[in-house]
Here is the input.
Amino acid sequence: MSDDTEIKPETSAAAVEPKTESHDPKVPAAWSEFMRTGWGDRELDLPRHPIAPYAAARRQRLSEAFPGERLVLPAGGFKVRSYDTDYRFRSDTAHTYFCGNLTSDAVLVIEDGESVLYARPRSNRDTDEFFRDRQYGELWVGRRPSLREISDSLGIEVRHIDDLAGQLAKTGKTRVHRGVSAAVDQLVAADDSRDQDFARVASEMRLVKDEWEIAELQTACDITTMGFTDAAGEMERAIELGERWIEGTFFRRARAMGNDIGYDSIVGGGSHATTLHWIENSGRIVPGEMVLLDMGVEGHNLYTADVTRTLPIDGTFTPLQRELYDLVYAAQEAGIQAVQPGTPFVAAHEAAMDVLAHGLESLKLLPVSAEEALDPESKVYSRWTLHGVSHMLGMDVHDCGQASMDLYPKGDVAEGMVLTVEPGLYFQADDLLVPEEMRGIGIRIEDDILVTADGSRNLSASLPRTSSDVEAWMASAKG
Here is the structure.
């Protein structure tokens, strides 16, 4: 990619009617003409974003993987929440990974080693868009950056989005990262094999994180720790107001210090902890029970943490709760210790399951020996463990999902990869094969593990894990 940047004019190639609603007031010509006059120039001088050199190197590697081809990565657009209300925009992961852009409707095009970002800039003052358009109008939704501002910040050539169709109409082999923008998908005839291979390579490039990404993930984990501490300090209020109070408490921290939550928070009080993806968060928080919190902050550059703790609601584990919690902790420790460069990705899962299966045997729950249960043709222990122990983590909470299965999950881990280690035990409320006192108990402990040259580092280690440390931490959080 050339270091030179170019900015094309901001004027749209075609006049487009502002997006309005039937109940909006009429706009007489006099009002429209008056609104277009008397505005000062507000162009900003933006510093270069720290992602720029990393993104440029990524684009170069991607281009080298597909020499002589045109590569198209859309950011995506707004998604409707209800009628005329959109969800808050979040750009596509692959798009942002390769250029850093966070604005809607943009499209990155890489061709012959050169990169151009086609973007929708801020509203002009020579049309009604800026004060009438509900989706893009500056007076409705805020100021978008100009083409020059995007270019200055990201260090990339930027052109108006209206120029995209003409560029994609040119001859040449083109691959599109599909399923992100229906409008872009329609501009280029699909080739499923070619496009899927493109998505695979783009996903696999994210498996190993660079130093900037690791720092972003560490920041997300640090803010997440603060959010968990906020939640622990609000436990007495949650007893009064329920699971949603904890969800809202964590969300406040995520929005105040990050971009958002990285995924819908799981706040499972009591038996809700046995539902793996309990995101309704509508239940009670009852003293004497535990609450499972699976929550993560997404940072400003979209890297997310993914952390789980299971807490005694009144601050102290009962003897049974402690016994089961300590078993899950031992399984997690075994899983974390198994994360070493060059070892199979599944090693953490296998190490954790070995501990849990033998623990379930000691609890006299297994219908066979632990060794028999661990046989891949049996796995009956999984009735109470349910899920895999690890997944890749990065800009997506389940990162790199389109990578070749030979690399992930069937491959080995390498220095720079980040994965979760999250074993759990889940005893359903109606499970007649466990003692009554265990029914309705769910426990999971999850941390974010960076593979290092000589082992691993726990990015979320500042959040207590042992049962004794959790009790001490909860006591201090109340203060």
User: Anything to note?
Assistant: Residues 211-233 form the longest helix (23 residues). Residues 1-9 have pLDDT under 50 and may be disordered. DSSP finds 16 helices and 17 strands in the chain. Residues 364 and 434 are 9 Å apart (CA to CA).
